[in-house]
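Regression test attached.
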Amino acid sequence: MTPYGSFTFFFIIAILLAPTIILGLRGKRFHTYNMLATIAALGLIFSSSLNQALALILFTIWQVLLIRLYIHYRKQSNSNAIFYTAVFLSILPLAISKLLPYFSDINVIGFLGISYLTFKGTQIIMEIRDGLIKKEPPLAKLLYFILFFPTISSGPIDRYRRFEKELETEISGNDYKQFLYDGINKIFLGFLYKYIIGYSINHFFIANLRFIAHSQFQHHLYYMYAYSLYLFFDFAGYSAFAIGVSYIMGIKSPENFNKPFISRNIKDFWNRWHLSLSFWFRDYVYMRFVFWMTKKKWIKNRNIVSNLGYILLFLIMGFWHGLEIQYILYGIYHALLMVLYNSFERFNKKHKWWPNNKFTHVAAIIITFHFICFGFYIFSGQLFQKGV
Amino acid sequence: MEFKNEVIALLAEICQDDVVKENPDIDLFTSGLLDSFGTVELLVQAEERFNILIPITEFDRESWNTPNNIANLLADRR
């Protein structure tokens, strides 16, 4: 069953979480029950495909073993080669699942959410390397973090240390009222976004485009803006469900969106769109790369280092979305925008060419909006579809 | 106190703005003075100048947000 995909799903989750709510309102600890509820919910989500359920179990065992082995090793030693091997092995299942469809008809390794769960495993390996996760995570907590059902299919991508801290925080009955209130609020925002606004854009506008548009160009132009809005409302709606259900279970999953369409520039956009993903790439790819380059002093020019970091980040992000041409181009497009914006920002710091006032602020938002929409247009794959 | 001034001087260098000296409680990230690149420079410099090692993943923008907070957090790790 697709998470948040049908009324039945919400109905079953409501029943499943009724004990959570009762325990929470009474100020009792409920995480043990929530772990059991997660197993039940996973059973529900993966019931339709035994193959995927098996792949999920194998994937989880693989990640847990890798984390345990690496933390044991890290207590004694800290070699680069072992660290890179551990990161490679942690990404390996995802890489195989993306490549396999090109070689075989059946995908035995992939399952719903593998892209998102991989981030959680890799991130733990990196924080063990940095010495931030020193103690071996208790098995139950580690499994709960990886498999936490509200966010299993498409995030938001949480961080282990944050998640564990929240598991240990006592929530009084009074505190829980706020969790519950916020959770329900978010879920209803999700209904508005995904099932009213997103659905309407898709059903009434995009599906009828061939009657609305008078030319090929118009068709593509309308599609570009409509798809961008649809993508936002659909994904922000999904995220609101995932975050809302997390809150009801006493976990404040990180936010994924912060009004992306009022971004002033492309950098600002990546601080507002799919935050848990872009922050992951910022912290674990871009910053690590820049740090490494700055320390080794291989390249003296700071701007080249920064630009190479952006290119690396967005290329990986493109490949992560999928190996189809539109995703790779989407990555290249955003890398290019970041590099250009970076140069512009430097130029402007010196020459003060673009003043900072209300008028230029609005103008910047409008310009950025069109660039963002063109990016989503590439992402949609509409460019490469024949016979539209 | 001297250490604090050194940190703030370093921040002024990285942000290329003396406002961090005038207003050491300014939020460096919401004001756009510091970004990911500047953060990395700060971490590299902290290691080279003060011999304080801070992993990238330890730096979060909620607690390491103002010149004063950064100076205090660095001082704790000396």
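Expected vs. actual: identical. The CA atoms of residues 29 and 60 of chain B lie 11 Å apart.
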